[in-house]
Amino acid sequence: MTASFSNLSLAEPLARAVAEMGYETMTPIQEQAIPVVLTGRDVMGAAQTGTGKTAAFSLPLLQRMLKHENPSTSPARHPVRALVLLPTRELAVQVAQQVELYAKYTQLRSAVVFGGMDMKPQTAELKKGVEVLVATPGRLLDHIEAKNAVLNQVEYVVLDEADRMLDIGFLPDLQRILSYLPKQRTTLLFSATFSPEIKRLASSYLQDPVTIEVARPNQTASTVEQRFYSVPDDDKRRALKQLIRERGITQAFVFVNSKLGCARLARSLEREGLRATALHGDKSQEERLKALNAFKAGEVDLLVCTDVAARGLDIKDVPAVFNFDVPFNAEDYVHRIGRTGRAGASGLAMSFAGGGNDTRLVADIEKLIKMKIELEPIEFEEDRPRGRINDGRRHWREEGEAGDARDVLDMPRERAPEGRRAPRPYRPAAAPRDPFFDKPYEAGQDSENPPAWEAAARSASPAQRNMSTNIRAKRKVAALFKATPTP
């Protein structure tokens, strides 16, 4: 039986905020993690993306920090007590918004810092004092070095999407940040995949953690239908458009492996009339937020993005995900398709494999998710044979057979209203034929008037006639200066 939030005995401000957000029953990760975090134990949690990990660590931490809330305006009375580290800007903004909603009726302050924008507004926010600091590792180190953030009173640390942070190369930054924190603290580590590197990180910084696995690590959501198509690289765009049209997909993520490929594909789709935009690491923070807001508002149908958007983006009711490129890391496949089928909804994930290196990458995914993958061929509409009437062109059906309903030439013509002539189908006018070219060849009988080239050959001098036709005769040119004979 699924537990209810009303059974958690949350403080009244938190319970009111949770009720306003429409939370009633807990997800498996919330049901198992929240009671453990409330006791102050370290946690190592494995859960699929989209299962409510943010509430699983935010609510118990806020509950434990209520003893520190105070109405004072002094920054010294509001030191950083909880630090949440995340790999990407988008995920940091999303978690910060959730924390702010949970703490809506408390006097606890929160802030978010990330790269790609000016530090001054973030510095001003930190100087006011905050209890909960959500940050990306790189920008947090900038504020630590500028002495804008003091972490000597931190009691709780959350490493969310820890495997992604290691993939990006944040391990040295994480080690530096953790060295600034007190030794006595509660550390929570959440990840969708448990790699050997994650286990080494946990053994180094977690003390006797409670391991929580609500699903087998690296398992994909059961609500997502997964399809793999064998498509050559040059035909992937055609396959994408055809599947969107055939399945009636209104919105979708389209994942590619490179920033350049992301920008090119988005521009190509826009030129073909689709509402698409790109989201990748080379865009400024303002551009990335603008693209996300347009996608959430329904102004954009296809969000073409790299793996920077595959972690933690919580956009509800996205029906499909396309892997335009098979991901280099099999773990990224789990996170990519986790963008659809969230919170129990059904979803569709379609991947295009072009052969060559893609075959090996698909085999890696198959090994990771422990599921047999069948590559399906895709037949393009324009390649299918269509019926033709026999009016001098190649025909695809025997005389008397029913034609293809898709062929306008085989469709019955509509009768025009009385008093109006039915418009005739446009046919280009045939070019006029020259009867000269229909006559058989006849040798010329006018020997007195030979062709021009024969006449020219006859009039040439004997010396010129003996000369090769490929050699041009010298031309006599008047001398500008007369040579003076030397005495």
What this model shows, in words?
Residues 3-31 form the DEAD-box RNA helicase Q domain. Residues 34-212 form the Helicase ATP-binding domain. There is one protein chain. With 487 residues, the chain is α/β, with parallel strands linked by helices. The protein has two domains: 5-213, Rossmann fold (3-Layer(aba) Sandwich), CATH 3.40.50; 224-380, P-loop containing nucleotide triphosphate hydrolases (Rossmann fold, 3-Layer(aba) Sandwich), CATH 3.40.50. Helix content is 33%, strand content 13%. It is built from 16 helices and 14 strands. It has helices at residues 12-20, 28-38, 53-65, 89-102, 119-127, 137-145, 162-168, 171-179, 196-205, 236-247, 259-271, 285-296, 330-337, 357-369, 452-459, 462-466, and strands at 43-46, 82-85, 110-113, 132-135, 156-160, 186-191, 210-213, 224-230, 252-255, 276-279, 302-305, 320-323, 347-353, 375-377. Strands 3-4-2-5-6-1-7 form a seven-stranded parallel sheet, sandwiched between helices. Strands 10-11-9-12-13-8-14 form a seven-stranded parallel sheet, sandwiched between helices. Helix 2 runs parallel beside helix 3 and helix 6 (137-145) packs across helix 8. The chain is elongated, with a radius of gyration of 36 Å. The N and C termini lie far apart (128 Å). 35% of the residues are buried. Residues 387-400 and 404-410 have low confidence and may be disordered.
